[in-house]
Amino acid sequence: MFLRLPVKLKYAPDEKTRGVYDAVESLEPGTIVYISADYGPSTRAELLPMHEAIVYHALKRDLRIVSAALWPDGPPLIDLVFGKIKAELAEEGIQKEYGADFVNLGYKAGNDVTIVKIGSSIPETFPVDYNKTPLASLPLMQGVKNFDQIGLLVDISAGWPGVREWLQQAQQRFKIRLVAGVTAVMAPDLYAFFQSKQIEGFLGGLAGAAEYEYLLGRLEGRAMAGMNVQSIAHFVILGFILFGNVLYYRQWRRSRLER
Amino acid sequence: MLRDKAPVWITFIVGAFMVSKFFLNVPQVTKVAGELEQWCLIIVGISIVLGVVNILRVNLKVVANRGRDWGYKLALIVSMLGMTAVGIVELIVRKSIAGESVFQYLYRNVYTPLSATMFSLLAFFIASAAFRAFRARNFRAAVLLVAGAIVMIGRVPLGATIHPILPKLADWIMAYPNAAGQRGMVIGAALGVVATGLRVIFGIERPYLRGN
Description:
CATH architecture of chain A: 3-Layer(aba) Sandwich
Number of strands of chain A: 6
Oligomer: heterodimer
Radius of gyration of chain A: 21 Å
Distance between the termini of chain B: 12 Å
Number of strands of chain B: 0
Mean pLDDT of chain A: 92
């Protein structure tokens, strides 16, 4: 019900959301973006909208996307996002094809070691893609050896392994540009890395995804619709907190008077 | 004696070598380290099989003895083996589990809604915890409460709609007090990781030697 409330909310994207937007905008057409979908269906509500928004932004700017996952639940979500955005762009007259504009390399176990291995050699880490197609036969993967050919690393993460691991093993070792999309609970952890410019920007939860959609002009986006509900939910929880404190104060006052 | 000493020496040699790879830009070192990383990925892949075997071993025992919650454990075993079987059949017949397949159908229509439902139960726990736990019992609790309330209101667009100062206050709280605290914790944790890593490499701590 609250999703369809005709409430016009004000959006003011902050510098960390703008950091993600500007990082994608700064890339030349044809640049390869590596997106790691390190989340599963349990956090889909928070992270899928930002995943869709980033893929939409990148493909619309004629960037090419190599996507993989350090979580076993990730690859089907990657396929879901690519399918949806491909259809959306086709309606706008923009044709994008698997193998030439985006690829899904699937899941690889190994966490931090996988990240280091990707930095050394992507074809050795992923000899085939999620569809079991050899990488050598995919046009997008021609000449892509490691992070040297990647213009931007995007990590969409719900926990471990996630942004910290990409920061430690990829951004610091291989000096690759990094932006992130995380759940709202994880967002407070990343401010220190953002201030030290190790991460150029990050999206925190559904609010971050909504701000990103606002910057992209996707006003009918899933995250913006969800912010109506989240706003109401926050105020309901605040109401519970206030109610609990009122009851606590009354109890405290009664016990003082009895003394 | 070799049984105790050999793993310690292997840990030291391999650990020191992998640390040195970070600092040395020598092609031979990089090549050997790359091979070791590949071995590690293979071992991690095998450990997933070990994990599955362990789950089966623990839960089958409970089911066989009709122990506590044996029905739930039976559901776990049946669903785990079922998805595995479907995936293996798909790999044999279609060479892939991607695209339109029974595996993807089960993932999208069974696993995804169940997973999302379990996570969404958190909303009710949060509401209950908010009522019971966020009480201004003393000054520090009151500061935490006020800061939390400002961040909760400021992080949603409704807060910006009410007053433009609210998002700015929320951002200030996250960017200064929160970031300062997080920075301290990250540095402390990193020092702990370095210390523990060095203790494992030098054999002072031997978590891989059970009982030693």
